[in-house]
Amino acid sequence: MTTTIRVSGVLERLQYLFEQVDFFSQSIAEDNKSLVVGKLWELIPILKDGEGLIDARSKYNVRDENFVKQVRQLEKILYRMEDLVESHQVGGGGGGGEGVAVASRGQGRTKNSIFKKFIDRKANSNNFQADLSSLTDQIDRILTLLQDYLVFDEMPARIVDIGDMGLSRRPCVYYEENRIMRRERDEEELVFALTRTTASRIEIISICGMGGIGKTTLAKTVFNDVRVKCHFHRHAWVSVGLDFRIRDILETIFHELGLSSSEKQLNLEDLEQEIYRALKSNRWLLVLDEIWSIQAWETIRSIFEPSGGKYDGKVLVTTRNRDIALSLSAEGRIHDLGFLDDDQKWELFNRLAQLGGLELNSYQEIFARRIVRQSGGLPLAIAEVVDMLMLKSSDEWEILLQYSDVERSRTQGFEAVTIPSELVSALTEGSSTNLEVISICGMVGTDNTSLARTLYNNSKVMNHFNIRAWVNVTQEFQTRDMLVSILNQVWPSSSEELLTRMDKMELAEKVYKLLKEKRWLVVLDDTWSIEAWESIRVAFPVNNFGERILVTTQYTDVAECTSGDGHIHYLGVLNDEQSSELIKRIAQLGEAVLNSEHLQIARKIVRQSGGLLSSIILLANMLKSKPTDEWESLLGHSAAETSGTLGFQEVRSSLELSYYGLQDVLKPCLLYMGNFPEGYKIEVDKLCQLWIAEGLISPKECNINGKTMMEVAEKYFDQLAARNLVQVPKDEMSNHQNFRYGSLHEVVRDICITKAKEEEFFEVLMPGSSKDSVFRRAIFLDKLGDMDIRPYLGEDLRTLLFFDSFHQSGEQYVFPRAIPDLTNLKWIRVLHFDGVTFKGGKLPSGIGNLVLLRYLSFRDCYLTEIPSSISNFLFLLTLDLRVRKLCRVTIPNVLFKLERLKHLYLPLNIRTPNHDKLQLDGMKQLEILENFDTRVCNAGEIFMSTSLRILEVTVQGNLDDLEKIFKCIEANANHLRKTSINIKNFDCYSEERLSFIEKVFSSRVLHILRLEGRIGRLPLFETSPMFTEIYLNGSLLDEDPMQALETLPHLRVLALETEAYIGKEMCCSLSYFQELRSLKLSNLYNLEAWEVEEEAMPKLSTLTIENCRGMKMLPEGLESIDNLRKLEIRMMPKGFVSRLQKIDGEGGEDLHIINTNCTIEFGSANVL
């Protein structure tokens, strides 16, 4: 449940506000401050306990309405408290605080009248303490209600109908496992183990079993057992997780033990000492739930030394990995939770079916038994089966059973998929002195397993290797099981009894010996973690005979770790054309006769697959089994009724599993992306800024790791991309660079929208949406027609996102949008306009009253005037004024007042009312500054910013301005991540200017260079600059520029335009331009011959040749570039064009040069 995560974020921000001593020394009594902070800290353990229950229930769309209602109310109260404190802080109710006053040019510090009006109405000094006390009392009442919720024995099993919650009407059965199928024996054994008296030592007891088996439920039941509660004096529960942090663990223990400190934040050593002192004279119990590595315990175990006498300390651990359990509980005991057998599964099914009102006749019972038998032995899986059968009519059960063997359905028809030749080559060609690992990486549904299976059974691959083995790793891997699986395949004479007697090291040694001096292939399928690879790699010898390991994984970080510098094959989703072609090939395998009408129907149906290979294959198999005259009948119900049959629901379930496996801080960040329209390319920088403005990025993590908010937000995005929950460009995945864009697959987006609505995190406005109060709302104007949106702009809104795609549709005229008055949105923090055409080019009224704004964006909007009231936004962190390119924006000279601003994006075309230069000298905290133009900005003022991470500057040929800019770049060199400079009208007519150009090209902190003007020759590079993009225009170079540019190791984009080069011949040398992705040759009138040598530009994907009149043909060397996907030919001679076009059997002599995956686009061809 992300609500508790969001609430924790508000708590953290409030704590920060309350710890500002200068503010509170004059605004609030110290005892009142302690009372408020104490109440807030009491919330944290209660929320975490409740969160575990809600997360378990939300997997089945079930919520405890009492708990949810109180947490929602708590969120609202905490937001109000935050509003109250911040508005009082701004209004000067006593002490100031960081950047709270308004500076006026040429005057002392004054209060803006808008703030006086705001404060007089909402947070003046007279009623501040009364308001704060009232909110504290409300929190106190909620504390009592939340504590009552955590009495587990008062929660009976029940049916919940969520139809009244505004969600789809889906009857779901919810059960507490210890109530429906209680593990009484397990409970008694664990209670006895925990409460028995032992020697003066720590005893660690482990509960071990795979995900969904009930480890946490059992541990929670024992933790709350009255005998355990009475036996121990101190209790602490910590949810560790995969991405644990030591400070988080210690702080959780600190607060769970009821400890407190007057200091702002204890360091790690003080935390350890406080915890040790609290435990040394007490009998204590610590639960470490969901441990994924031994390090989580080893790093804190020194605190929990034996306390002597009869006061024992006990640690209860839950883990999926038995190796970890064995290491931790060597002197204690391990409690293994196993699968349910068939009788237990059927018993549980009947109980849940009875609770859900699912009645079976004898015929239905036969099918139900068979379906349950295939469900596995997980209690949660049984509940999912009941849930699924409750949604289906009995005549659909047989179809469900027919397709429940998903692996079989997937592989049928996979023979129609084209296997990448480079993968077969990577497996069977070449040898290495290192162990070569090849990874196939893609999100759930891209079917890396089927691709790996097809490769594994490929005749060339089978003939190449002496020994092959396939290992199913899975999320709950066990090293021993993986080794035994390999031995069962490569050592046929072994017996189960013999393998059982061998320990893990003996098994690894046996695998090593059997593979030694042989050419072998091992597939590690469905690898979820780096730990799985690390635990088994010692068993694989390096023979230099061409041995290979093939890994399949959903996670990019796993692929990168296992393959190192080797081969990673990223699987993406298919577009509509690729999907339709695959449907056609698979259907024809079934001897279906297809006409154009059938293909049209197939294309309509295939759009429901979302481009996921597994769904497309399942869909094609179903079409193949039906007469073609029945295909059209699928159109009406394919999206809903056949989604489960086709495996779409399985994809969704797998993605939901990945979501629940995320670190807590990542969950709301992912859900937030559901605010954006379907298929939208989300700028990563903008997304991170939105997360920051929403309070989803923890300042505490920034302080601990010494990172900026943006750096932490980018790390969060990288983690989501590494889990393939966010789609990013493939070339960026393989280049270890910061991502520029990301998007959500439609299935992931649907999950985000559904869960966000369940948790009232945000709502996408649609016709028929509820007018109930929400905190965040996204409005797609182009989808709403003439709908009146005013009733949906309630005063509780803290986030409002407007999107309008009409301006991108190519329409010559876009009807302006009348945005309602915004005066009442006084608590709003985020206001985002994307593509909106404002009436008259002016902003809606009331926008100047939104004084608590953190984020304001007008990206791609039609806007020509910014009001002076923008200076009211003293909390503003991000201001994006990148309106449409044709808009000339008038900006009043008040931006310098926004002293807290960190991210400023200026428009391309600016003017001020008095036509003077825009003043920015007050912005000392800027981290991002884009579209800074020396025509309208003072180059000297850029020195005021000493924290720049991204800088994009346009300089109009003035050498003095260039010198100032470069001094700023050098001053920020340690933290600049991206630097772009656009130099216009800069002819090198003096040695001084030529010397500066040499300085530019030798810079180690400049990444993107656009240079317009004559320079004559390129300087030699003494070092390897960091250029990623170079655009040269009118340079009049008389020597081949490729000889100098090809050595740049990071260059990805190169454009030579309008006589940048005036020579006749050009050559891209052998094995150079290793990172180049895009090359443009435009208006190079003298160029006649271009040579591309072998292995040059191996990653080139886009090539543009425009108006190079002397060129007769493409270079033959392009034939070796397999990655080329787009060739653009514009205004080239007819003879050149004809060699790339085959008309009536004539021409096309150069088509063999271009690979079959490359698209050729022609522009005007009538130059000659």
UniProtKB/TrEMBL annotation:
What keywords does the record list, in alphabetical order? ATP-binding, Leucine-rich repeat, Nucleotide-binding, Plant defense, Repeat
**Highest rank taxon of the organism:** Eukaryota
The entry's protein name is Uncharacterized protein
Q: Does the keyword Repeat apply?
A: yes
Cited SUPFAM superfamilies = L domain-like, P-loop containing nucleoside triphosphate hydrolases
Gene Ontology molecular function: ATP binding
**What InterPro entries does the record point to?**
Apaf_helical, Disease_R_plants, LRR_dom_sf, LRR_R13L4/SHOC2-like, NB-ARC, P-loop_NTPase, WH-like_DNA-bd_sf, WHD_DRP
Q: Which family does it belong to?
A: Belongs to the disease resistance NB-LRR family.
The UniProt record lists the keyword ATP-binding? yes
Organism listed in the record: Cinchona calisaya
Which residues does the UniProt record annotate as the domain Disease resistance protein winged helix? 676-751
Domain NB-ARC as annotated: residue spans: 193-352, 425-587
Residues in Disease resistance R13L4/SHOC-2-like LRR domain copies: 818-1133
Q: Which GO terms describe its biological process?
A: defense response to virus
Q: Which Gene3D superfamilies match?
A: Helical domain of apoptotic protease-activating factors, P-loop containing nucleotide triphosphate hydrolases, Ribonuclease Inhibitor, Winged helix-like DNA-binding domain superfamily/Winged helix DNA-binding domain
